[in-house]
Design goal:
The structure holds two protein chains of two kinds. By secondary structure, chain A is an all-alpha fold. Chain A contains 13 helices and two strands, in the order H-H-H-E-E-H-H-H-H-H-H-H-H-H-H. Chain A has one domain. Chain A is 67% helix and 1% strand. In chain A, a hairpin with a 4-residue loop joins strand 1 and strand 2. The two termini of chain A are 14 Å apart. About 1% of the residues of chain A have low confidence. By secondary structure, chain B is α+β, with helices and mostly antiparallel strands. Chain B folds into two domains: 191 residues, Penicillin-binding protein 2a (Domain 2), CATH 3.90.1310.10; 309 residues, Beta-lactamase. Chain B contains 25 helices and 21 strands. In chain B, a hairpin with a 2-residue loop joins strand 14 and strand 15. In chain B, helix 11 runs antiparallel to helix 24, helix 15 packs across helix 17 and helix 17 crosses helix 20. Chain B is elongated. Chain B starts with a helix and ends in a 15-residue tail after the last helix. The model of chain B has no long low-confidence stretch (mean pLDDT 88).
Amino acid sequence: MSYLEYRLQTVPTGLRKVLHLNWPLILLICAIASVGFLMLYSVAGGSLSVWAEPQMKRFAMGMFLLFVVAMVPIWFWRNMSTVGYVLTLLLLVYVEFAGATGMGAQRWIDLGFMRLQPSELMKITMVMFLAAYYDWLPIEKTSRPVWVLVPVILIMLPVLLVLRQPDLGTSILLMAGGGTIMFIAGVHWAYFATVIGTAVAAVVAVFQSRGQDWQLLKDYQYRRIDTFLDPSQDPLGAGYHITQAKIALGSGGWSGRGFMQGTQSRLNFLPEKHTDFIFTTLAEEFGFIGAFSLLILYALVIFFCVVSALSNKDRFASLLTFGIAATFFFFFAVNMAMVMGLAPVVGVPLPLVSYGGSAMLVLLIAFGLVQSAHVHRPRQA
Amino acid sequence: MKQNPKTLADGHAKFSRRALIFGAAQVGVLGILGYRMRALQLEQAEEFRLLAEENRINIRLLPPSRGLVFDRQGRPLAENEQNYRIVIVREDAGDVDAVLSYLAQLIDMPPERLERAREDIFKHRSFVPVTVADRLSWDAIARVSANAPALPGISAEVGLSRYYPRAQDTAHILGYVGPVSDYDLSRIDDQDPLLQIPKFQIGKTGVENKLERSLRGSAGIRRIEVNAVGRVMRELDREEGLPGDDIQLTIDSKLQNYVQTRLGGESASAVVIDCETGDLLAIGSAPSFDPNLFVRGISVSDYSALTENKYRPLRNKAAQGAYPPGSTFKMVTAIAALEAGVVDSEETVWCGGHSDIAGNRFHCWKRGGHGHTDLHKSLTESCDIYYYDIAQRVGIDRIAETARKLGLGIKYDLPMSAVASGLAPDKEWKRRVRDADWRIGDTVNASIGQGYVLASPLQLAVMSARLATGRSVTPRLVARRNGVAEPSGAGEDLGLNENILRRIRKAMYSATNARKGTAYGSRIIAEDFRMAGKTGTTQVRRITAEERAAGITKNEDRKWEHRDHALFVNFAPFDNPRIAVAVVVEHGGSGSRAAAPIARDITLQALYGDTPPLDAYPAKDRELIRQRQETFPQWSEATPKSPTQA
């Protein structure tokens, strides 16, 4: 079913679209962002102007963009997908090139009012592009090797560029997001089994070979892997962050120390307290209740997206919605796992909460796309 | 591409299936995250809360106030004075240079001090308070406080620092404190965390050093909240430390002051001991130094002036110095011989000025000899030949035994640095230490306190007190520690024959009071305070036969380092001994001329407790004494104040 077949009279037009927005999702986003403002106000020691205010302004701008994106019909965005992907890829190459030659190690482009990180933008443009790709590709060809190889290459290109920056966190998110869309689109499970199986085998081989005469890596590389996997081996170096984060989390207890009472973050024991580690401050000040509530809010965002995706008969729209939900999911799951010591510290912010311009805007634009897909979904007569 | 409607429907079904699988996986991950949250925040919460406390709470030590030292009358000898200093916090100061130059005008800081302060400031983190000026007068502090608005980041603080009001008088007894050094830390086995405080002051010498543990007290604790870089956010609570014990010494600072003044510029020492209790009333060593210089950080030039002085002002000669006791040892030889019964007190020995023993010629100090000499005469006129004779009869081992009984060759447990043990040599000692047999000549030399015999002025004073009382008087320096009296040093009866002791005392009495006595010139006229004493003059180098023949034996003709040591021991009053005194003047010449007058003056001062009346002195000395009394600085009961406390 293409947009030409939509029965125009059932799809809302003009300002009436506002009534058809996925309002629960918007309210959830606002709730999560408000948690962010509160925490940024707290970690700044009760100062609005340090982090909370700029973050609010960016959120306001992001919400505006969300509405603009939501008003634009989803088929327009589908047609823009390839252009968006290629442009973002070119931007990535540009910052890679320019960053290496003259702009220091800059990985962003100054837009005047904010700094745009192409790698952040790539998180949605890649999802858009893959959704469009699978919408275009005849379903029976989905699992043919050639048609599997194409998206793999198109995923790996930006992943490798981002990895070179180096930004391990973003490349993991890109890879996971892309892989998820391929999985949802119906690529045969054997491919995933092969990739996962090979990866597991490689990891096992690397670790098994350690100390044997066929050792695959050098000793220092193993030691680096060791501290990466278990930072507590190096408590004052790599392990310092995660140890302090766990102390902050744990000391929150059931109900926390109270708003603005978190000693760990206010006394600067926590690193990146306003960005990647902001969850620890929440957990310290509001305890298990606060931390778990945020987790529920995130889960609800995913839930509403998934419901919207499943109920949408348009393949592009549902793939896009699901892909964005998956990326969002990886975002907060990796961040939480990281600060709780379940995963290595890879530098992924907490979506909508952590201080940061690009991530916030890109996420809100992504949710604009979800809204657009929702508003412009094909309706039965 | 146009999608086939059939496959599109299949595709949507597959999408839903896959979406459900993925959704299930997401729920699984959410479950793990939630479970982890529960584990960290609910199950291990206590543990992490504890760790968080440890993180933010820092324990700082509060140095306790050091114990004070008083003299026997309760006059302060070592105090803690308030030390006003100026502290700067760089981050609050803004323009550090501007603030410092303004401060320098206010408190008169020399440029090099300013430069050192500047270096210090930039060596530390911006929030660390750095001391820029120390020991300021109250006026200077007032000026700084008045200009506070123009001096951002500057604050005045008050701390305690050691001050010795009697400065030179008690330098050798008390020693001094100084900042703990790496060398100190490597040398002492002390786990006290106070020692880790930068520039914490500990006793370096003397009482300050020996009674360090009592004086120091124990640390207080201040719990503060710090942030990750160690900046102090606020104080949580504090627990004051235990101040150090106050120490009361047996020293009488008025007498001590007199002794130091009387010794004057000589390289000399004197000890006054209470015969009853063993209390050390004065321990003088001259020249002296100002211990306050050390507390404040002595300059290189001041320090080298002290170390290069040939009179060695840093040395406590009274306790550390070990000298051949010379004729003051004759009482020991005499008692040993009389106790052994090898000589009768009436028996006479012929002194012809010299005596040939085992192929060597031994001389008496009096070239013409003393003629027929008995015990009484031998001590009064200090005949040497008599002792050569009786010492050979009694043997060195009994002499050494008697010497130890009388307090020589024993190291006393006194809280002063490097207390000398002296030496009462015997045959076993020579075999052990010198790996040689004892010779008869050694006994002859030892009989008159020469040769191997060594004694400190402190030991000589103890000997004199033991002769006076017949008890094993033991010196003590600490009277009370934290208000608790230390045991008296009165001692047990020595078990010496009282008749023999009485004869010895009588002979000592006539040595100072009989016309022919060696110390007749330094007698005391005052009926109640007459003293008994004995002179000693000890060679510091052998007199060669040529010198003896040429008659160049007069001290005045020799270089200072080659002149004889002058010694005198005495006790007084004769009928009821209260104090015993020993004086040693290094290279002072003869005991009767250099040491005895000092000992007599000290004795009178001690017995009167103040400037003695002129009629206590022999008539011919009165004019000289009067002049000296007038030139001596007036004693003031008021505790001298630190010069910086304007």
